[in-house]
Amino acid sequence: MKKQKLLFLYSYNSQPDSKTVGWSLYDGTGKEKPSTAVDTPAPYDSVLEAMQDGWRVLQVPVLKPDYPGQEYSTDYLSFEYILEKMEDCNA
Fold first, then answer.
1. Selection from 8, 2, 14 nearest residue 91 by Cα
2. pLDDT tens digit string along 31-68?
3. Secondary structure element (H or E) that encloses residue 51, with its range
4. What is the extent of the structural domain holding 28?
5. CA-based, 20 to 30 A from 42: which of 3, 7, 17, 48?
6. Number of structural domains, the chain?
């Protein structure tokens, strides 16, 4: 049986080879328990590196326009990629 893993990577810009600045991993296989420590390094330096390791891109960032004055407001990280990998499990 195959089970799903999801990897959320946040990049410096919209290019898949740009540096990863944030991440979250959700492992439906139950094999990994990712650290929640703030200083834990990302599993991949870029989305492209994750793709080369077999992760499939499910969603790419939606580019939104910047308006004057927005540089002072807070928001979610703009360049979010959602990746998926299916792994074999014994259950």
1. 2
2. 877 766 678 899 999 999 999 999 999 998 877 766 67
3. helix 47-52
4. 2-88
5. 3
6. 1
